[in-house]
Task: inverse folding
């Protein structure tokens, strides 16, 4: 079977932004690596999963579709069965796959922080929506607050390799969903100028978040052209059901010009089949259903394909985010997104370890590396999360920043040219000094071609002992403490902040946003 027969993508590209707005608070980042060399599925496997997903949407469809979805999809040729299932004909899905907007960007508020979602360019960031934060002093957990979320945002603001801020904690001190949604957006946008991803539980909350963004951008049109905030939307409840509230939120976001992360979470062996192939087919179908819905609302929508199949530990029923099965499943889901050439996001880094320890390191490194090598555009939860996304650790953010620098460096391609082959230089050195350490090319490239960790120790054993035998955790804790004591960015002007506080019930005290 020709696995491209149903897909002839019509590429649309987003415009480039001009420099302007707040300055980045860290050095200019390196260009996003272009990866995509890891392909767990062969061509036949991809074709069969694609065909199975189309079959699922055409014959089984999605249940519990709210009226906004039914109206949008049936107007384009979808069909509602007598038992209430919304079917997506192959021709409709194929038409959407041909028409999706591709090659666009998400924006930061400094040009150096833009996220290019073209092809297999890779960016890594935070995420998690955890209810808890880890206390650095003793490793205990406590309920996260709005101030903790703000602290996380301003810490990420200073971490070079954590390239966007996806809301990492649920502020447990916000007593209503409206207060939670609006204040989460405000605290995130105040804490970092990097691209921000948040959530909303009601369409009216989307409107308030949009108005906040319009004010910060200077106008509605300015935000629509260069959106610096997007919404994570879990439109599906596996297996094959819509979440009505989430679909209403998606419709409001599309109408407001907010990019949408079309996310699907199924757990292999629990809410999706126990086989990787079956899990991928169902998850792809659920994700495509959300993508098609977004496209029917606006063919020019910035919609990001967010298949997030997760692995279940069948002994306990809990998530096994640090497993080898999870790593390869995530890479395969990313390969499917690249098969469609869709801007995409995925979860990696969902370690099961409760603290930033050796288990946390190997589990995060495994899953994030495979996601990066597969070419995921946006890797969320790549830094700071612990305990299967149940807790956020500020200390882990700093440690994971070192990890991400190494992983992103390893995901890039190798430049082979006359200049980099260095045959003339080799000849000079072997007839001269006999080593390359003092050569001009070595000196010139030592900063441009290498990423150096800030906290991982590379000292010789004697020097390490002489310096007090430090470990990465103690170094990271000091960085967190120093950063949070000194870094109080002004990413929202005082005038705009005053206006937002007058219009919305902002619960983050102004005094909390300045140095004591």
Result:
């Amino acid at each position: 079977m020709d696995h491209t027969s149903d897909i002839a993508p019509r590429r649309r590209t987003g415009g480039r932004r001009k420099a302007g707005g707040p300055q980045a608070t860290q050095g200019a980042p390196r260009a996003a690596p272009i990866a995509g060399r890891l392909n767990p599925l062969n061509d036949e496997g991809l074709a069969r999963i694609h065909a199975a997903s189309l079959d699922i949407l055409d014959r089984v469809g999605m249940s519990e579709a709210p009226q906004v979805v039914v109206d949008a999809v049936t107007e384009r040729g979808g069909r509602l069965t007598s038992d209430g299932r919304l079917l997506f004909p192959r021709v409709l899905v194929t038409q959407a796959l041909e028409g999706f907007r591709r090659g666009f960007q998400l924006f930061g508020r400094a040009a150096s922080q833009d996220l290019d979602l073209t092809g297999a360019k890779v960016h890594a960031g935070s995420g998690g929506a955890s209810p808890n934060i880890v206390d650095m002093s003793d490793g205990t957990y406590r309920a996260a607050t709005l101030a903790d979320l703000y602290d996380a945002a301003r810490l990420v603001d200073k971490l070079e390799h954590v390239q966007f801020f996806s809301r990492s904690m649920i502020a447990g001190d916000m007593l209503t969903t409206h207060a939670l949604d609006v204040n989460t957006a405000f605290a995130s946008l105040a804490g970092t100028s990097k691209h921000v991803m948040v959530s909303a539980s009601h369409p009216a909350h989307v409107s308030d978040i949009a108005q906040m963004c319009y004010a910060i951008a200077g106008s509605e049109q300015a935000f629509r052209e260069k959106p610096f905030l997007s919404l994570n939307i879990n439109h599906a409840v596996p297996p094959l059901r819509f979440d009505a509230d989430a679909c209403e939120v998606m419709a409001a976001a599309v109408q407001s010009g907010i990019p949408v992360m079309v996310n699907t979470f199924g757990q292999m062996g629990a809410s999706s089949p126990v086989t990787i192939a079956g899990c991928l087919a169902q998850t792809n179908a659920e994700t495509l259903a959300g993508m098609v819905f977004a496209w029917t609302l606006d063919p020019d929508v910035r919609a990001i394909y967010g298949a997030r199949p997760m692995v279940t530990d069948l002994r306990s029923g809990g998530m096994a985010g640090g497993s080898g099965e999870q790593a390869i499943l995530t890479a395969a889901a990313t390969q499917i997104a690249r098969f469609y050439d869709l801007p995409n996001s995925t979860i990696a880094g969902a370690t099961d370890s409760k603290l930033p320890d050796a288990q946390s390191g190997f589990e995060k490194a495994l899953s994030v590396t495979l996601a990066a090598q597969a070419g995921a555009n946006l890797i969320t939860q790549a830094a700071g999360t612990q305990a299967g996304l149940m807790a956020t650790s500020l200390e882990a953010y700093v440690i994971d920043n070192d990890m991400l620098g190494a992983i992103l460096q390893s995901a890039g391609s190798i430049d082979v040219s006359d200049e980099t082959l260095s045959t003339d230089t080799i000849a000079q050195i072997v007839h001269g000094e006999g080593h390359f350490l003092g050569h001009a090319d070595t000196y010139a490239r030592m900063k441009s071609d290498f990423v150096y960790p800030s906290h991982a120790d590379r000292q010789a054993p004697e020097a390490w002992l002489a310096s007090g035998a430090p470990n990465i955790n103690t170094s990271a804790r000091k960085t967190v403490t120093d950063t949070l004591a000194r870094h109080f960015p002004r990413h929202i002007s005082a005038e705009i902040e005053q206006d937002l506080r007058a219009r919305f019930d902002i619960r983050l005290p102004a005094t909390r946003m300045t140095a004591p």
Q: What stands out?
A: Residues 367 and 424 are 40 Å apart (CA to CA).
